[in-house]
Amino acid sequence: MTHFFSMIRNRWGLILLCYWLLLVAGSCRKTTYNVIPEAAYLRVFNSLNYDVNVTTKDQPPPFLAMIIDPEYDGAGLITGGKIIGDHLDQRSAYAGPYPDNAGNTSFRNTEYPGSKKVLVGPIINGINLSGWAQIPSGKHRVVFYSRPISEQPFFDLLERDRKSLLVDSTIDFKPGEIYTMEVLQKTVATQYPLPITLYLRQEQFTKMPFSDSMLYVNCYNLSAEGYAAAHPETSTSGLQSYYNATNKSVAFGDTLNLFYSLYQNDCPYPYVDGAPVSPDLIPGYNNIWLGTVVRSHVAGVAPYYSMPMFGATDTTGGILSRQWELLILLKPGMFPLPGPVAVSADGGMAGANPAFGAIGCSNGSNDGKGTTSARARRSIPRISNTTYLASCWLPNLIRYTPSGNYDQRSFATISTIEIINNQVYMMSVQRAYPPPAK
After folding, report:
1. Using CA atoms, how far apart are residues 253 and 358, in angstroms rounded to an integer?
2. How many CB atoms lie under 10 A from the CB of residue 405?
3. What is the model's pTM?
4. CA–CA separation, 219 vs 209, rounded Å?
5. Fewer CB within a 10 Å sphere, N or C end of the chain?
6. Residue 306 bridge partners (DSSP)
7. Which residues contact residue 331 at a Cβ distance below 8 angstroms, ignoring those fewer than 6 apart?
8. How far apart are the C-alpha atoms of 168 and 182, rounded to whole Å?
9. Cα separations (Å) of 73 from 79, 144, 172, 380?
10. Which DSSP state fits 277?
11. Beta carbons within 8 Å of 200's beta carbon, 6+ residues apart
């Protein structure tokens, strides 16, 4: 019996010794992280948003494959590439500060890198770049092909389905620089193939001084040349898009002056079905002029405009702001009316046309996904049940998340709003914030 307990005691001693050795070895182990030396950072959107219908049935589907440094066989058929961004579907209305589709199981990707398992950007000057992929800097050939909508990888497609080349360009990516790339419709046309262009913007937000207490936004009109002239009509779809809080609108004019107003009491975040969005202005923040938005595909960074995150009286000690923002666009010569609705047209901003429109930034957009139920439609703000404040909707410029000891806290974003034909889009970046307390 004594020998038996001695064996147990020795065995436990051996186990404890092994455990201690593992701890020591683990504490001394060097962890290395994979990085691309002298990397640049790239985010890609498929911004071809034309509807596939009887008038566009002969056009290639707006479903793309991106290949960087492509490889071809002797017959000129593409057979491979160094970087592949496959299954690029039309972009989502909202591209947030962090990859919210990292767990996406669908074969469709609404951006690159999206759900691709690739090396992504670090935090630079406090701004999280996990929405951008690391790529080798230097000159690279970049091509985009239209492809069938299927789960099949691009290079497994039949030869005939790998020949619809849309864009072929050579780009010099600088080390450490941040790039947003988009495939755009170049001009309005009905012939085949549709004129396509590649747009590349070298972002500057990691190099600029931003205050944590201010919201920042810049605006671009990347619509096809001639789109507004070809679509002069007022909205003919009734109030469907407006009620559903979507990013769809009528055409915006080629040159528009930009103003903003701030409103009190947005609906809760995350969106609660039927929770109202208030039409009440915050005193002192009505129709404030920002600048001019001109339609263009010329690369360059538009100026960032600032507005306070706490426009209303704050009773939370800087923790939670419930305001929402309205961006008002008017053709030169028009000026917004004082009050919550900037125009006197029937229906207010819901009757937008290329001369005027307004983009509401509210939690009512349901993170850019919109709403569909009749109850949800009652959330959308109006005056006297007949006059509406916005033409289309995007998420609030303020993001809400648990942080520290707070279940929910407001954080400012640096956001880019893009008008592309009859839709608007938002891309936001954000500084790192304290995680929830354990």
Report:
1. 12
2. 10
3. 0.91
4. 18
5. C
6. 216
7. 253, 255, 256, 257, 354, 355, 356
8. 13
9. 7, 17, 25, 56
10. -
11. 171, 179, 180, 181, 182, 299
Query: SS3 breakdown of the chain: % helix, strand, coil, rounded to 5?
Result: 15, 35, 50
Instruction: With a cut of 80, say whether residue 216 has pLDDT above it.
Output: yes
Whole-angstrom Cα distance, residue 364 to residue 123?
A: 30
Give the integer Cα–Cα distance in Å for 108 and 116.
Answer: 11
Q: What is the pLDDT of residue 100?
A: 60
**Residues 236, 53: Cα–Cα separation, whole Å:** 18
Residue of 383, 289, 398 whose CA lies nearest to 345:
383
Whether the CA torsion 171, 175, 177, 178 is positive or negative: it is positive
CA dist 424 and 353 (Å) reads 14
Identify the pLDDT of residue 103. Answer: 60
**For residue 247, is pLDDT > 90?**
yes
Tokens of 401: 């998340």
Sequence-ordered strand ranges (E) for 295-369:
305-308, 324-330, 356-361
Q: Are 420 and 222 a contacting pair, CB within 8 Å?
A: yes
Sheet strands (E) in 56-103: 64-72, 78-88, 94-95
Rg of the chain (C-alpha set)? 26
Q: What is the mean pLDDT of residues 319-346?
A: 97
**How far apart (Å, rounded) are the C-alpha atoms in residues 304 and 406?**
30
- DSSP, res 23: H
| Dihedral class, residue 11 (left if φ above 0, else alpha if ψ from -120 to 50, else beta) | alpha
Q: Which helix (H) or strand (E) holds 21?
A: helix 2-28
Q: Is 295 left (phi over 0), alpha (psi -120 to 50) or beta?
A: beta
State the maximum Cα–Cα separation within the chain, in Å, rounded to a whole number. Answer: 102
| 93 token code pair | 């209305």
Please give the structure tokens belonging to residue 18.
């092994």
- The kind and range of the H/E element at 166 are strand 165-173
CA of 153: how far to CAs of 65, 103, 108, 171, 269, in Å?
Answer: 9, 19, 11, 25, 37
The token duo for 394 is 């995007």
Handedness of CA 59, 63, 66, 70 (dihedral sign): negative
Q: Is 349 helix (H, G, I), strand (E, B) or coil?
A: helix
pLDDT, residue 76, reads: 97
Share of residues in the chain with pLDDT > 70 (%): 89
